[in-house]
């Protein structure tokens, strides 16, 4: 009986999705009483052209197989035609191994030196060195204030006025349990503390450089990690995070369109700021183009406030079937189908 019901449901979804648009998607979703049935609606969403004018790329410059830092950014711009990248400036033991160590900016200086003319970078400010686990090192007993003053402020001061930096994103996935610094800063399960972190860091950056955009740190995928990530986002907005930043950021992985069409897009449509999807991507070198052509246009159709989308990522040192990278170290599959598409435009 369940099998017959599923066949009937899929047939109805197919009919409703023919010539798919927003209204037919909404109608189809009326059929699904429980989104937990995990029916993936991706096959009912048409492949459409990617908006390459608002397409960026995560490029972390730490994958040696992909070449030198300068060569990677040149390839991104000259071969793929992408002029907006998202780069990572972690505050970690490599940068400042002890509280009294001088900060080693050499890697980050190299990144900015290698950004070619005509390309800009969104800089993620994240992480903490291991010594930040000791509360005696915190300014006024507050680890979030310490991050703002000892990292966000210092970075913004060092690179003030640098035209290669479009803005700063404050933190990355505060609700991700895999990142120890989230517990260290007490933001993992406390969105209000993350709003405080954003407040401290945004003020520190603006004290040093008023020319840069401030982008909120995105949670884990807002539809895939449902409903916890969505609820975390709702608390952030209710607590006033939109008054602290210029851009509101989200991450979007998977399809989970049954989640997007409903609670998630209803929430995102209330955001009064431009929205940037600072991470979205797909593993497998033969899966990326289809995913990008289905998911990215659909996101824009559902949420008019979405502006820039950053693909995750340029290069990743994993097997071709597991890598998010447009480039992989696999000699048989060195680039993905999305890479080939972009390179041939």
Task: Write up this protein.
The protein is an alpha/beta fold and 345 residues long. It folds into two domains: 39 residues; 293 residues, Glycosidases (TIM Barrel), CATH 3.20.20.80. The protein is 37% helix and 13% strand. The protein has an eight-stranded parallel sheet with strand order 5-4-3-2-1-8-7-6, with helices on one face. Helix 5 links the parallel strand 3 and strand 4. Helix 3 packs parallel to helix 4 and helix 5 runs parallel beside helix 7. It is globular.
Defining key terms:
about 350 residues, globular, TIM Barrel, single chain, disordered N terminus, 8 strands, about 15% strand, 2 domains, 8-stranded parallel β-sheet, alpha/beta
In short:
The protein is α/β, with parallel strands linked by helices and 345 residues long. Helix content is 37%, strand content 13%.
What is the first-to-last residue Cα distance? 49 Å
Q: Which bin fits the share of residues in helices?
A: 25-40%
Overall outline: globular
| Helix-strand topology string | HHEHEHEHEHHEHEHEHEH
Tell me the CATH topology of the largest domain. Answer: TIM Barrel
Spatial arrangement of strands, main beta sheet: 5-4-3-2-1-8-7-6
> Structural class, please?
alpha/beta
Mean pLDDT: 91
- What does the main sheet amount to? 8 strands, parallel
User: How many distinct beta strands?
Assistant: 8
Oligomer: single chain
Tell me what portion of residues adopts beta-strand conformation.
5-15%
Question: Architecture of the largest domain, CATH level 2?
Answer: Alpha-Beta Barrel
Question: What is the CA-atom radius of gyration, in angstroms?
Answer: 21 Å
**Low-pLDDT stretches:** 1-39
Give the CATH class of the largest domain. Alpha Beta
Total helices: the number is 11
Number of domains: 2
Say which CATH homologous superfamily of the largest domain is assigned: Glycosidases
